[in-house]
Amino acid sequence: MPGLLHLDASARSTSFSRRLGARFADGWRAAHPGAPYVHRDLAADPVPFVDEAWTELCDELMRRRITDPRRYPEVVQTPAQRAAWAVVAPLLDELLAADVVLVATPMYNFTVPAALKAWIDQVTFPRMSLAGTRFVVVCARGGTYLPGTPRAAVEHAAEFLRDFLDGHFGVTDVELVTPELTNALVDPVLAGRRAEHEASVVDAEAAVDRLVAACSPAAV
Fold first, then answer.
1. Model-level pTM?
2. Which of 13, 61, 84, 179 is the most buried (most CB within 10 A)?
3. Are 76 and 57 in contact (CB under 8 A)?
């Protein structure tokens, strides 16, 4: 039975990324009653940054050419490494058990929040593959960074996630949903673009619904 891992990274308790992420998760769960579902709120319950013991685990995995996550515990030796592995193990188990990973995040200062980057670092190991896992990324952005816009070149959140997942994990099934211009609701400079923002949200909701339908049992 397919499983869903749902990550939230927004520092806001209510946000566009959380709202659209919940829309996907609710639709997916309705289409897969009883299927495994894990929700991890990385802002409310942040994972720690990696430490030196974590880097030692990575070094030893490379030395021994271990690429199978089931064998990772073999390299854990010292008390510090055991403490580092105690952080990693539940996060990695959730990731490896998921058929679909939903990442709901804002873009902060042109990139992903530190809380999401901390999770990524904790679960990323040398030559580790997640090929075959489907990723849905909902990334809300205060301005507009669509291809062809003046700031497209500094979009390092949604595109970073797609490039990273493909470049490191070999994941080719990454769907991006990017509601734009959310700051039009609060920034007077962008107030005249509120209609663009609202249209972007409508498009994002429709994209989420299409992705839910594509993940339904009838579609796979």
1. 0.94
2. 179
3. yes
